[in-house]
Amino acid sequence: MSYQALDEQTLVEYIRRTPESAKWFPSEQSLETSDLADGNMNLVFRVRAVAAPDGPSVIVKQALPYARSVGESFGVPLDRIRIEAGALQIEATYCPDWVPKIYLYDPDMHALVMEDLHQHLVMRRGMMKQIKYPHCATHLGTFLARSLFYTSDLYLSSETKKKMACEFANPALCKVTEDLVFTHPFMQHPENRYSRSLEAYVLEFQADEELLAGVLQLREKFMSQSQALIHGDLHTGSIMVNQAETKVIDPEFACYGPMGFDIGSLAGNFALSYISQAYHASSQASCHAYQAWIVSTLQQIWEVFEQTFCSLWDEEAVLWKNDTYKKAYVVSLLQDTAGFAGVEMIRRVLGLAHVADLDSIADEQVRAPLERAALTVAARLIRTRRKLQTPEDVIGCMFD
Ligand code: SR1
Ligand code: MG
User: What is the pLDDT of residue 27?
Assistant: First the structure.
């Protein structure tokens, strides 16, 4: 079938035409669809049987030739679904419990049919409601350690790693990240959008030579360091959670890049959630209690990551057995994490793609001081990252 963007009507026909359809829904069942598109980029639908609303269901995700939230002026190749399917397959090999199951990858329709995580909530939304997830630190720390270690030179043969780096070259989506994360927020750019009352502070910020030098170092690292197959967009909107499970979704930005970019994106989004709790929590006591949960969860994510990553290194790495080198490598990951967390925070306040934690605060007089606090923390992370030696140093810099 040649590519056409699906809608709620054509989707039923599409599902029925796929040879696998009978595995999901008996042929006599009539199907209903709902539009779940929420992120910036793609179409997302749920399909289920009309007669069995609690019965089996699937998610159909399809790429558009542009970013859905912006429109046709923001062209992005359909090939990103191939990248997402490939990354999910690799993650399923090393981290099967923490990614959704893929039922079908359709390269002609640039679509995926996958597990419906209807018992999970987008983590960002849960954090905006102060929901605590007791297992997410173990799950996310382990996911990061395993997905990054097993796709790096520490584990793969030189040849395999280079072939994988070609397969996941993803130039167009990397360019989106280079522009939206590392470039536009640090200059006057028509795609930027931010609270008007931040203007004077933003101009000061964009003229800060030392800060901009740090951002350029991080940009260059993102563009040139093929350290591991990274998720490439690991914010709290790319995680589905409940009290028992954690699923990392949406790796369409996957590419070979620095490990700290994934850990830092996650940490930066935790810091934004922390700052926005002053608005979302219903009382000062619940704000402080949830902020304490955020800090200890982030610390645990790092501890689980470090412990798992170092154990994999000891057990599985062949050519890299040297404790001094390993320790320096981990400190360097920690410093990258701090720096990438900083740029992620800044781009979510000044750039094109914001986060609901802050954007849902309609009153600018309430929102802007929180955004300014986020910019201050972010700049400190970027400026001081190379002095940070321990997770406690990073936590101290991030949450004052
Ligand atoms: C057009 S908006 C692009 C952003 O959305 C994705 O979720 C990524 O975060 C990207 O930077
Ligand atoms: Mg996404």
Answer: 81
